[in-house]
Every structure is written in structure tokens, then in C-alpha cells.
Amino acid sequence: MEITVVGSGTVVPHPERVCACYHVRVRELRILFDSGPGALHHLARFRLGWQAITHVALTHFHTDHIGDLPILLFALKHGLAQPRSAPLSLIGPTGIAEFLRKLKESFGDYMLDPGFPVHVRELADGGELRLDDVVWLRACATPHTEASTAYRLDTPEGSLGYTGDTDFDEKLGKFLAAVDVLIAECSLPDDQAIKGHLTPTRAAALACLARPGQLVLTHVYPQLEGRDLAALVRLAGWDGPVDVARDGMRVAVRG
Ligand SMILES: [Zn+2]
Ligand SMILES: [Zn+2]
Q: What is the pLDDT of residues 70-106, one digit of tens each?
């Protein structure tokens, strides 16, 4: 399994980080976790084959996590030399069907009928979905918005956890237990903490519960820019491997 950080940024425009998006290549699957503004062009920049995406899993409906979904579908309809026939699965928390219906109303029929099958799958808290014979996607609600969710992906080639946007939550820590790689948001410094997001101390507490093989911190606001984020999380009690995500960073996992 290979994980690539496509976008490690936030809503605040940044010269190097675009909004939230992570690409996972495992077996025949090409999965995007979130599809924030800038993601599609970064898929091209990092040569990740935007044409071949099989699944998009959205964590919630904030614009910094979904802004490039319409442009992905528009590109798959109009930007391919050969028309696509392979289906695309759009997965999201409760409300995704309604959300896509509204996008279709605004942008046009291609949102749900781009000329190839689009399967919409709602994954509520505790839900699970088999993506192929042996790969499972599981969802856990997060304290961020009413619908926000985190995911874990369990595959024969290893496991991945992705918090989406979240505050500290004990249930979430247990849900993410022992994943090989945990991509965790770390939005703001502890002295500027707000409800619904992690800080170095909250991220460390979550990691100490989940005990991932590797912690990757992402969704970094400018307030944390220039700070040694990994050191802050270690200082807060996390003693395992920790990296700070940057766009284009690849993590290989061998299960
Ligand atoms: Zn959000
Ligand atoms: Zn966000």
C-alpha cells in the first residue's frame, strides 16, 4: 500500500499546501480521502493518475475537504481522451446523498451521471464497507460537525487511519487502534485551541490511545507554521514515530 499526501493544508491559501486530500494505492484500488480545493491539480503534479480513481471517501462537507469533487467529476467526463466506463464510488457520512443532489442542482447532471456509473454510499458512525474482496473501509463519527467522520482502511498490505477534522475523542482513539499509519489533523497551537480541532497536546493524547505505527500530522494552520510540530507532539507525550505531512510526501506500508 502506498499513501501520498496530496494536500496537507487548510482553508488558508498557502504556496505549498493545498486543501485536504490523500491518495491511497492498494491492490487495484485508487482511493482519495477528501478532495479539497487544489487536489486535482496536485494529483496531476505528483503523477497519481487522477483518471484511475476508483473511490472517493469524504470525511465531511466543509469546503476545504470537498471543493475539488465537482472538478474531478467534470474532468472525468470531459478531460479524458477515451470515455470512462469504470464505476466510481462516492462515499461519505450521513447526508452525502443529499449533498450530491444539491451539487447536481448547482453544477449539472454530470455530478451523478457523468457517463459512467457513480455509486453513492452513505457510511454512518460504526458503518463498514468492503471495497474489494479483502479491503475494508470503516467509519467513526468525530466531534467536529454533525456529520463528520474518521476512516480506517484495513487491507492485507497494512492499515491506515485518517481523522478528517476532529477534536480529541476517546472512542475515536480506540477506533484507530494499532493502524500502521495514522494521518491526524493538528490544526492549531495549544494556546490557540478551539473546539472541534486537534492541537499538539490533543493529537498526542489521541496517538497515545491509538498507538499507530507511524503518526503523520496534517491540516496545519499558519499559526503552527515554523514551529517544530513533531517536537511539540513528543513533548506532549507521544513517544512513537511522528512526521509532519507535506504535499507530495509518500508513505509505503508493508502489512
Ligand atoms: Zn472541517
Ligand atoms: Zn478542514
A: 999 999 999 999 999 999 999 999 999 999 999 999 9
Q: How far is the CA of 139 from the centre of ligand 2 (A)?
A: 17
Output the pTM of the full model: 0.97
pLDDT of residue 38: 98
State which fold the 2-248 domain adopts.
Answer: Metallo-beta-lactamase; Chain A (3.60.15)
Q: Quote the ligand 2 centre to 16 CA distance (angstroms).
A: 16
| Pairwise CA distance, residues 143 & 149, whole Å | 8
Which ligand has the shortest distance to the CA of 17?
2
Q: Please give the distance, rounded to the nearest whole angstrom, from the Cα atom of residue 84 to the centre of ligand 2.
A: 30
Domain ranges of the chain: 2-248
